[in-house]
Design goal:
alpha+beta; BirA Bifunctional Protein, domain 2; Rossmann fold; 2 domains; 11-stranded mixed β-sheet; 5-stranded mixed β-sheet; 16 helices; 23 strands; 24% strand
Length: 502
């Protein structure tokens, strides 16, 4: 059970207190390598021309203001319910969500993809979710990380905390390993389902900020900053690839934020400039005169949502404390034990935040007149077939079987509804390809395909295609991505309603 009295005393880490008091200087690092100091004056940010970078301005305003609370519910919350993906669970603690079949499908697909990409780069491990609160190394680290913890008391009166990342288990594992300089960079990876942070209730919102989340967490142990910078640049490119393949446009859909201790920047200025050069547009820089946390530098790729608030997804950092704290060492060429630097990478950020970003982006696209949708590979249902009458059912069934043989997820709307209502509901469900089948289609074998990706909110893009052409189109959109079976019954008449629409 949660020990409430102990939680009140222990949940506030020293790093979290420092974060509230920390004073930062803010800059924009442009593509020419110029560091421009910016400040907030009379509600505006001055010191840099943001005219070509409106989202960078929003990001800067959000970070400098440090206001995390939402005044009203962001659009993705209604979408995650309406699309029967995710909802709040009143029977649990705040920030612990429930996933309906479609939501679980999307989450699993993302987990599978990110895990596969990381397993090509690092060794996958699995570690506990609960740790001894009074373990000396762990307790010190808790106070160096700006997060609140869930504290649990066992029947034996020992206190434990639920992990907020995979660091604890991976560091304890590395402590026990025999590591040579020849093994470096040494890379360990875990998909934490779940990590826990006792976020403040006023900041909890939908899939953006929650208390139980799924985090791909990859640590690399490197010899020194030289090797670490090479490794971080490799991981930077890996992260860009991951986000591009998920369905984002890099760098257009994100803003780069870099946080330095001043000494680090002065010593590694060329590295900072190289990072921005590879990003391809200016970055927001936060600089501290002294180090408050366990890292000397970190970068983040931040999504700007419909409420003009920023959320960090991808992140990596140079950890210069924990190798010594956890007594992690390697044997160097001179046969002496030395402490490595540790890099902390999440190449996508929390899986839940990826879904949040996709939903917010789709909503913003709809405000611009474009039909909102998820990437085709992530859409639980890729094709919906709408027979006009019962006499078309057999033909529709044959079409579905041809598509299914190619791994395409198909639903058939066999309900006793009018075609306009069926089409409307398919659009509401963000089905990427909608096909109405009647006498004309049976005779010509040409199908009128509503292609959502090319449609506008008020105007459908329809192309006449045969089954092979439909198959080729869809397979071109999902090539190289994971595939799982349809998460709901194929026939619409058999599908239960998980979310009662208002």
């Amino acid at each position: 059970m949660i020990n409430l009295e102990k939680k009140k005393k222990q949940e506030i880490s020293e790093a979290l207190k420092a974060e509230e008091k920390i004073e930062s200087k803010w800059f924009i690092l442009d593509l020419d390598g110029k560091l421009c100091e910016i400040k907030a004056e009379k509600g505006k940010i001055v010191g840099f021309d943001f005219s070509k970078y409106p989202n960078l301005l929003k990001f800067a305003m959000y970070e400098i203001a440090k206001r995390r609370v939402y005044e009203r519910e962001p659009p993705h919350v209604e979408l995650m319910k309406k699309l029967e993906m995710v909802d709040y669970e009143k029977g649990s603690d705040l920030g612990n969500l429930k996933y309906y079949p479609k939501g679980r499908f999307i989450k699993r697909m993302l987990e599978t993809f990110v895990s596969k990409k990381l397993s090509e780069y690092a060794m996958e491990v699995e570690t506990p979710i609960m740790y001894d609160y009074n373990h000396p190394s762990l307790k010190k680290y808790l106070h160096r990380f700006p997060a609140r913890q869930y504290v649990v008391e066992s029947s034996g009166k020992r206190s434990f905390f639920l992990r907020f990342a995979a660091c604890f288990g991976q560091f304890l594992m590395a402590h026990d390993m025999n590591i040579s300089y020849k093994h470096l960079p040494l890379r360990l990876y875990e998909l934490t389902r779940y990590s826990f942070r006792l976020e403040q209730s006023g900041e909890l919102v939908g899939l953006k900020r929650l208390r139980a989340f799924t985090m791909p967490d990859c640590h690399a142990f490197v010899k020194d900053y030289k090797q670490g910078k090479e490794e971080m640049l490799r991981r930077f490119e890996l992260s860009k690839e991951v986000m591009n393949k998920i369905g984002f446009s890099i760098p257009n859909d994100f803003e780069l934020g870099i946080r330095f201790v001043k000494d680090f920047y002065e010593e590694h200025e060329d590295f900072a400039k190289e990072l921005v050069k590879r990003w391809g547009k200016p970055a927001l820089v936060e600089m501290w005169d002294k180090r408050f946390f366990y890292f000397s530098m970190k970068y983040e790729l931040n999504f700007i949502d419909a409420m003009e608030k920023a959320t960090a997804l991808v992140t990596d950092q140079f950890d210069v404390e924990n190798a010594e704290r956890y007594e992690i060492s390697y044997v160097d060429k001179d046969n002496k034990k030395k402490h490595p630097i540790i890099l902390h990478l999440s190449p996508s950020g929390a899986i839940e935040r990826v879904i949040y970003s996709l939903l917010e982006q789709a909503w913003m696209n709809e405000q611009k007149g474009k039909a909102g949708m998820l990437p085709v590979w992530l859409s639980p249902e890729q094709v919906r077939l709408l027979p006009v009458a019962d006499r078309h059912n057999e033909f529709v069934e044959n079409i579905s079987k041809e598509l299914e043989k190619e791994g395409i997820r198909v639903c058939i709307d066999d309900r006793d509804l009018s075609i306009p209502k069926k089409v409307f509901q398919a659009k509401q469900a963000w089905v990427p390809y909608i096909i109405v089948v009647g006498d004309k289609e049976m005779e010509s074998k040409k199908l009128p395909v509503v292609i959502r990706e090319q449609s506008e909110v008020k105007k459908d893009k329809i192309e006449n295609m045969d089954v092979k052409e439909v198959t080729k189109l869809i397979k071109s959109k999902v090539e190289g991505m994971p595939n799982w079976p349809l998460p709901v019954p194929k026939y619409m008449s058999k599908q239960p309603i998980f979310y009662a629409r208002k």
